[in-house]
Every structure is written in structure tokens, then in C-alpha cells.
Design goal:
Elements (H helix, E strand, L loop, with lengths): L18 H12 L2 E2 L11 H13 L12 H15 L9 E4 L1 H13 L5 E6 L3 H9 L3 E6 L1 E3 L2 E3 L2 H7 L4 E7 L11 H14 L2 E5 L24 E6 L1 H4 L7 E4 L2 H11 L8 H10 L4 H24 L3 E3 L6 E5 L9 H12 L1 E2 L1 E2 L7 H4 L2 E5 L4 H11 L6
Length: 393
């Protein structure tokens, strides 16, 4: 304390150490299998790693790269959006490279919000969303995804009711972390109609765009009237299994990119110069790479989902992402996901993450726990074997 005030400013007072840091430390301390944090336990393609080495040795990006990102990566991002989704972006004025998707979200919210603006976000949400809204002085308005018949659903009437005259933007995440929901074309069309009708901006986090097992990923920016009001965010970490590289990007209209860049330049300014050259090559990998990645993760999803069900969990099989959400209540007497996750390493040597930390309405997420399946098959097999011990107690 100094001058009678807390050191941490009041906007961030509710945010302590992230649940990922706590659970990863617990995994290390107990020697448990870490299915909490969403990072792969193997690196991505050798040719992309070697591309980064070549760039380092050639001196490409070792000094400050251009603020918007190296031209090679901006061009590759624009080509990717056109090839995959038919969205045409100018790499010079409509693409901005960021330090991962987390910085992209932060920069977008800092740039586009005034204090008191409301942000509608799907709950549960990735924990940085709440912190970024708070740092920007915004007010978060959660719309809860509800568990229903083995999946999570968006109530479109609840979404419409959440929009008020104070709403500035909708913060959307699809494929959705942590539930694995992939919003349908009809759901996205309703979001687009609402945004146009109420003159809202939309920031959409699409980092799991290539990890869709059921349905399809459709960028919101592809809907009528949405290109000029949508900031689309993605990154290399999840798609190419180099989460530590922290290379992300946004695509948007020149006006929106200029606004976001105005905030981003005072965060990191630039980062990961040599890695940007490697990611440019990664985005041009053949379709066979993306197909194989998806097939591998689908098999791992099925392995873990089956094992969790056999262990006695209620399982919500994800349509996308790295994660399976489970209900602990069928285990008998379990209600508190946070207490469950803190005890799980000692009970069976596995670490998971409680979904309640991703909710404003903590009671809505209390009995749900998230497991990551972006691990080697033998690791998942061992984790499943350990978790089955819960059903025997």
C-alpha cells in the first residue's frame, strides 16, 4: 500500500494469477499429466521450424521488423483468407501482425472502446477477454452458452436481449474455447443481422479455425454488411503447434486496422521478426497438412472423450478446438469444479481446469471441468487409465 491505495488499479482488482498458471504449477509439483493448459506436447512441422532457423541465420527479422508485420506474412495472411474463405484483403492496409491473438484482442478492445461501453461476450469465455475489457474501461455483458443434449447452444433471443443502447461491440469466439462449440451458419447470420441492425462492431477470435471436427468454420466477416464492421483475429500457435511463438494477426477494413494499430504500437510495437517469415511459409502448406492435423486431433478427441465417459464424467463432445468439457456431477457428490481440479492430481495424477473461472455467473459453470486433448496419444492413454480410477471409488 502507498498513499492508502492498493497497488493494483481497481479495473484489474478482480484478476489474480490465471488458472492456467495455478494448474500448471500444480502439475509440476505433483508430477501429474497436464491436461489443463492448451498447448501441444510436440512441436509443429520440421520444415516450419527450419524456416525460422533460416530466417535467423539470414538476419531476416533480427532487428525491428515493420510495425504492421513483415510484408511476406501480411501477404500470406491475405492469400489464406482469400483461398479459404473468399475474403479479399489488402496486405498493406487490411492486415496487422500481432503478438499472438491475446494481444490482438487487447489492442482491438483498447482501440475501439470508450469507458462505459458495453461488450457482449459469449460465456464461458477465455480469461483474457474479461481482463482486456476491464483494461479498456468497458463493461462486459455475458451471454451464456447452455449445455444441452451433449453440446452447448447459443440462445439467440438472449443474445438480442443483451444488446442495449450502450453496447459498442460483440466479442465472438468460434470455434469456442472452452466449450468446443462451432457456431452454425444460421447462428452467425443472426449475429450479423443484429450487428448491422444495431450498428455494432464485432471482434471475432477465430484461432481454432482449422480445428473443426463437426460442421464448418465460417468467418463472420463473410456475411453481408460485416466486412466493414468486423475485426477478425487468428494466429499460428494452435494451427501449427508453435504456441510459444506468439504470432497472430487481424484482418479488417483499413479504418479498423488503423485504429487497432494505434493501440498495438504502444503494447509490443513489434515482435517475433524471424518467426513471422516462418509463419508465412506455414500458411502456404498444402491442404494435406491441415487435413492430417484435423484427423489427428479428432482421433485424440474421441480417445479422451470415450475415456472420460467410461470414468463416469458427463461428456460434451466438442465440434472443434483442443478441449473437452465434462460434468463432474455424475461422479457422485461432486459439485465444485474448482475444488475437484485442485484435488484431482492427488487423486489420480491428472490436471484439468475448472470452467467456473471462465464465467461471470460462476454458478453456471461450477460443475464443469475442461480437459485438453492436444497431447501425444500415449499421454492421453495414460491419463485415461488414471482417470478410470475415479469410477472405482
Amino acid at each position: 500500500m502507498t498513499q492508502g491505495r492498493p497497488l493494483l488499479n481497481r479495473r484489474l482488482a478482480e484478476f489474480g494469477t490465471t488458472i492456467f498458471a495455478e494448474m500448471t504449477a500444480l502439475a509440476v509439483r505433483t508430477g501429474s499429466i497436464n491436461l489443463g493448459q492448451g498447448f501441444p506436447d510436440t512441436d509443429g512441422p520440421d520444415e516450419i521450424r527450419e524456416a525460422a532457423v533460416r530466417a535467423l541465420r539470414a538476419g531476416h527479422g533480427n532487428q525491428y521488423p515493420p510495425g504492421p508485420g513483415v510484408p511476406e506474412l501480411r501477404t500470406a495472411v491475405a492469400e489464406h483468407q482469400q483461398r479459404r474463405y473468399g475474403l479479399v484483403y489488402d496486405p498493406d492496409t487490411e492486415v496487422l501482425v500481432t503478438t499472438g491473438a491475446t494481444e490482438a484482442v487487447a489492442a482491438a478492445l483498447l482501440a475501439l472502446l470508450e469507458p462505459g461501453d458495453e461488450v457482449v461476450a459469449l460465456e464461458p469465455y477465455y480469461d483474457s477477454y474479461a481482463a482486456c475489457i476491464a483494461m479498456a474501461g468497458g463493461t462486459r455483458v455475458p451471454v451464456t452458452l447452455h449445455p444441452d443434449d451433449g453440446a452447448y447452444r447459443l440462445d439467440l433471443d438472449e443474445l438480442r436481449a443483451a444488446v442495449t443502447p450502450r453496447t459498442r461491440l460483440i466479442l465472438l469466439n468460434t470455434p469456442h474455447n472452452p466449450t468446443g462449440t462451432v457456431l452454425t451458419r444460421d447462428e452467425l447470420a443472426t449475429v450479423a443481422e443484429l450487428a448491422c441492425e444495431r450498428d455494432l462492431l464485432v471482434v471475432t477470435d477465430e484461432v481454432y479455425e482449422h480445428l473443426v471436427f463437426e460442421g464448418e468454420h465460417i468467418p463472420l466477416a463473410s456475411f453481408p454488411g460485416m466486412r466493414e464492421r468486423t475485426v477478425t483475429i487468428s494466429s499460428a500457435g494452435k494451427t501449427f503447434s508453435f504456441t510459444g511463438w506468439k504470432v497472430g494477426w487481424i484482418t479488417a477494413s483499413p479504418e479498423l486496422v488503423t485504429a487497432v494499430r494505434s493501440a498495438k504500437q504502444f503494447l509490443t510495437y513489434v515482435s517475433g521478426g524471424p518467426l513471422q517469415y516462418a509463419v508465412a511459409e506455414a500458411l502456404r502448406l498444402p491442404d494435406s497438412y491441415f487435413d492430417a492435423l484435423r484427423a489427428d486431433l479428432r482421433a485424440k478427441r474421441d480417445l479422451l472423450s470415450t475415456g472420460l465417459a467410461e470414468a463416469g464424467f458427463g461428456v460434451y463432445e466438442p465440434a472443434g478446438t483442443y478441449f473437452v468439457t465434462t460434468d463432474i456431477r455424475p461422479l457422485g457428490g461432486e459439485q465444485d469444479g474448482l475444488a475437484f481440479c485442485r484435488a484431482l492430481p492427488e487423486r489420480c495424477g491428472v490436471v484439468a481446469v475448472p470452467n467456473a473461472v471462465f464465467y461471470d455467473h460462476r454458478d453456471q459453470g461450477a460443475p464443469f471441468v475442461r480437459f485438453a486433448f492436444c497431447k501425444r496419444t500415449e499421454v492421453l492413454t495414460e491419463a485415461v487409465s488414471r482417470l478410470k480410477g475415479l469410477a472405482m471409488r
